[in-house]
Design brief:
By secondary structure, this protein is of the alpha/beta class. The chain is 39% helix and 17% strand.
Length: 330
Amino acid sequence: MKQTQADSPIDVNVRTGSPDRRHEKYERLIALTRQNPAVLTAVAHPCDDSSLRGTVEAAEAGLIVPILVGPAEKIRATAEKAGLNIAPYEIVDTPHSHGAAAEAVTLVRTGRAELLMKGSLHTDELMSEVMRRDTGLRTGRRVSHAFIMDVPTYPKPLVITDAAINILPTLEDKADIVQNAIDFVRALGIERPKVAILSAVETVNPKIPSTIEAAALCKMAQRGQITGGELDGPLALDNAISPEAARIKGIDSPVAGHADILVVPDLEAGNMLAKNLTFLANADAAGIVLGARAPIILTSRADSVMTRMASCAVAALYAHRLRLGNPIKG
């Protein structure tokens, strides 16, 4: 189906301008990342204050070693205007954003970098280079996106997939989306992630296609077609994340009420869920693209410092797992 496209524990929430809470979940992930060497990261077109500052902050925090790919004079001018010291970092000069995307992908493809990070170019521009059949970073897997949510009212990081790339995924696509998410969460230290396949209800209803697909995905996991996680579905959102809601509904499942991963029916549902948590529940959403030859860090100009750090941290953790001999299969 079609695809679309700082160290301080206290940050300022860019949506409200008010002092933000501590981000214990993100802070634990960042601390875990710092136990490993910083990861060489090709940063495509970091030519505005937001993207270049986020890159430098992640580097100074010991998470990444950036290779700045883009028009060299523009990168230096941006750094000078923002008061950022980029002298320690390699710059690969390219004429424009298209060239930056292509060159950054090449650096990852040839092994010079282990991570790819989006700068100030459009997501589609970067992903079109990633998805090129002969020169990109495709594998046998479907590429998918995952939000790693730090939700104040939930006791652990919560992964939502796919809310940004796959618009109307087929059952086959969803199997890859689930496997991508399981492999990723295992890299964060959860040996057998709990995966909730979401729908509007928790019973199979032939009139609601997502319930049929949820049941099929669970059967695929039982047959070894999806591995490494504990799947249950269909589950409505309340009984996926609330033990009390699951108890009231009489759902006896190790996943219900304790999900690590929420697999949404389609992009619209996932996007609305992630933004609901962000704007109504004061959650933060770090983002990463999975299923390619290397993790891809997608950041937004609206991201807080902590969210940028978390995006780099989780990508670096996954890259470290791949370095240890757990390649993405497909």
